[in-house]
């Protein structure tokens, strides 16, 4: 939500932070927002109970709390965004079928460098797909979907061998494991000469992921805002026990030969390869997706 709300910005247009919620009737019709209708609707119902908090503040605070609750880095939270006055225009959110040039241009227009886009994509370490292939909802983008780590950067470089669901869909490319999903956008950014060495740098030094992601997320949360008129309320973001993730590694069943190393400036780093039967990929625990007819769903109260 944080990205899909904030990226609806261009210097040529009025800023409209929080518009994803306030004008959800308009913005949830954008094809790129297909997978986030339930979180937006669920969170809007909560936000409405706190009229003193703007939608923009709500979205960015919720993102900071959610990331921390998943043992991601502590993102600074600035409070005081005014409420939006208009919906974001269509076609501002990158699409998984976009070319690298189109993605970089869109991000550049909103004030982000190619490196900052890759920093933000560390979020795909904790992400799943629901709407590209609806037959396999909650299929993650790496083998450690509940841990904020660098496995996403390793596994997007593995050779794709299969489609995990019912075949190919726009925005999808072949994945290396039957229970893992791969976006075309991630595949291309991992291999493009403009971004591949920076992509690899997360595998060369896994300690950079937290600080880089926190800095880029703070910038995302301030897009189009006057920081001087906001108040630093970062102390509101909970402190949780840090989890030390495993260093980047090649999952069992694959080897270095399966890595499509794409950085031409430096060799691919030496990382360990797990042995044993092919890594099995857990589905992340299902949150409240608003689908009340499925076993195990609970009311969100
Ligand atoms: C080139 C830019 C990006 C593209 C093309 C892209 C595309 C996508 C797509 C297609 C999905 C799956 C949606 C679904 O089927 O439910 C997804 C999931 C996700 N993305 Fe991105 N994304 C991009 C950048 C980002 C950024 C910058 C962030 C955060 C700062 C982000 C956070 C997430 C998260 C958290 C999910 C999982 C949502 C869930 O669990 O329901 N993405 N992304």
UniProtKB/TrEMBL annotation:
Record-level Gene Ontology MF annotations: heme binding; metal ion binding; peroxidase activity
EC class (word): oxidoreductase
This protein's UniProt keywords: Calcium, Disulfide bond, Glycoprotein, Heme, Hydrogen peroxide, Iron, Metal-binding, Oxidoreductase, Peroxidase, Secreted, Signal
GO terms for biological process, alphabetical: cellular response to oxidative stress; hydrogen peroxide catabolic process; response to reactive oxygen species
Active site positions, chain numbering: 4
Binding site for Ca(2+) 1: 5, 17, 19
Main location, first listed in the record: secreted
Highest taxon listed in the record's lineage: Eukaryota
Cellular component terms per the entry's GO annotation: extracellular region
Annotated positions binding heme b: 124
Family, similarity comment: Belongs to the peroxidase family. Ligninase subfamily.
Name of the protein this chain belongs to: Peroxidase
Species this chain originates from: Dendrothele bispora (strain CBS 962.96)
């Amino acid at each position: 939500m944080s990205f899909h709300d904030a990226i609806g910005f261009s210097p040529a247009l009025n800023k409209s932070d929080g518009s994803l919620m306030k004008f959800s009737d308009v913005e949830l019709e954008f094809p790129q927002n297909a997978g986030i209708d339930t979180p937006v609707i669920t969170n809007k119902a909560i936000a409405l109970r706190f009229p003193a908090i703007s939608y923009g503040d709500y979205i960015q605070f919720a993102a900071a709390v959610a990331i921390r609750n998943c043992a991601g880095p502590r993102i600074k939270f600035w409070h005081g965004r005014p409420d939006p006055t208009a919906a974001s225009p269509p076609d501002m959110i990158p699409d998984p079928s976009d070319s690298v040039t189109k993605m970089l241009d869109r991000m550049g227009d909103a004030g982000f460098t190619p490196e900052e886009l890759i920093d933000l994509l560390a979020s795909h370490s904790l992400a799943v797909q629901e709407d590209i292939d609806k037959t396999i909802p909650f299929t993650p983008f790496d083998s450690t979907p509940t841990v904020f780590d660098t496995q996403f950067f390793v596994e997007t470089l593995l050779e794709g061998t299969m489609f995990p669901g019912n075949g190919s869909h726009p925005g999808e490319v072949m994945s290396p494991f039957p229970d893992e999903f791969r976006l075309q956008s991630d595949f291309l950014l991992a291999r493009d000469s403009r971004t591949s060495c920076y992509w690899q740098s997360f595998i060369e030094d896994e300690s950079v992921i937290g600080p880089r992601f926190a800095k880029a997320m703070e910038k995302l949360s301030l897009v189009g805002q006057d920081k001087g008129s906001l108040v630093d309320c970062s102390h509101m973001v909970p402190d949780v026990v840090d989890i030390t993730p495993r260093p980047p590694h090649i999952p069992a069943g694959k080897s270095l030969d399966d890595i499509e190393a794409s950085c031409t400036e430096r060799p691919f780093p030496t990382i360990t390869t797990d042995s044993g039967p092919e890594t099995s990929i857990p589905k992340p625990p299902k949150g409240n997706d608003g689908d009340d007819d499925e076993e195990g769903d609970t009311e969100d109260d």
